[in-house]
Amino acid sequence: MHIIQRKILNFLQKAKVTHIGLSQLGRIVEKKHPQQIKHHLEQLKKNGFISWNSDTGAIKVLEPIKIISSKLLMLPIFGAASCGPAEMVAKESLEGYLKISSSVLGDINTKGLFIVRASGNSLDKAEDIKGGPIEDGDYVVIDPKKKNFNNGDYVLSVIDEHANLKRFYKEEDHVMLVSESTSEIPPIYIHPDDFPNYMINGVIVRVFKKPKPK
Questions:
Q1: Which residue from 110, 141, 157, 205 has the least number of CB within 10 angstroms?
Q2: Helices 3-15 and 34-46, interaxial angle, to 10°?
Q3: Known catalytic residues?
Q4: What is the CATH number of domain 66-208?
Q5: Could you tell me the fold of the domain covering 3-61?
Q6: pLDDT digit string, tens, across residues 45-98
Q7: What confidence tens digit (pLDDT) does each residue in 164-197 have?
């Protein structure tokens, strides 16, 4: 996605405007020429990120999950999450969509599902994940609907705005986030007093492998 299109999309997601002119939007993304803004809006519309009426200025960011046929979904990709130390900054900017057949997802409720790209190898021995284990660059499907987590769940968590993919265990006085890796990566321990700076964004339900170079 072009950097100007990313700026436009991020602004629209945060501002939640319903109408905007080309000149006004140009000032926001620091582009003076309305025709440039028009071009990028047309591309965002063509690729299914927004609906836009060029005559009225009516504009809307489309729902994250889009059904493009009776059995084909487009799940949003929201940046990367670390599979090593919790050092990958959590980003909610929309990078694009991954086309997936609903039949591949099986009985999973697709409402709210989204994708993160794995960065690192801390779950490269996680054989219990459907489609796993998770290797660097793989597409990881996250279900944010689950609120109560069980020991052994694989989760996407955020600690001090750093996203990571780990296995979840709750002990008597702390939460432990564990790697299952060919490398020696120590666990992360979270005390209840630190829970305000820690949250689980969802549970891992499926992995899609990145294409292997030939």
A1: 110
A2: 80
A3: 122, 166
A4: 2.10.109.10
A5: Arc Repressor Mutant, subunit A (1.10.10)
A6: 877 778 888 888 888 887 665 655 556 788 888 777 765 544 444 455 667 788
A7: 899 999 888 899 999 999 988 899 999 878 877 7
